From TrEMBL:
Residues 1-73 form the ABC-2 type transporter transmembrane domain. It is found in: Membrane. The chain crosses the membrane at residues 6-27. It is a multi-pass membrane protein. Its main location: membrane. InterPro entries: ABC2_TM. Keywords: Membrane, Transmembrane, Transmembrane helix, Transport. One of its GO terms (cellular component) is plasma membrane. One of its GO terms (molecular function) is ABC-type transporter activity. Pfam families: ABC2_membrane. The keyword Transport applies. This is ABC transporter G family member 41.
Length: 86
């Protein structure tokens, strides 16, 4: 719910700051692409470069993803193997 509110208010902020809807849509799509790119499911947290790690912590999607994964797999003692890694 909070993630939905954050993205909703970010969109409203961009519409309020931009002079027209076309610029707001361009800024919105690039902002949301960057936020979701560094959320942890496209690029894992361990693979994000050190100078971009702040974007991971800024992204509301990363907090939602971490909450979902920790609630589902938090008590699992078995090592979870990620596809493509050893």
């Amino acid at each position: 719910f909070c993630s939905l509110l954050i993205f909703n208010y970010c969109g409203m902020l961009m519409v309020a700051l931009m002079p027209n809807i076309h610029m707001a849509l361009t800024l919105r799509s690039s902002f949301f692409s960057m936020v979701n790119l560094f959320a942890g499911f496209v690029i894992p947290k361990q693979k994000i470069p050190n100078w971009w790690i702040w974007m991971y912590y800024l992204s509301p999607t990363s907090w939602v993803l971490e909450g979902l994964l920790s609630s589902q797999y938090g008590d699992v003692d078995k090592e979870i193997i990620v596809f493509g890694e050893k």
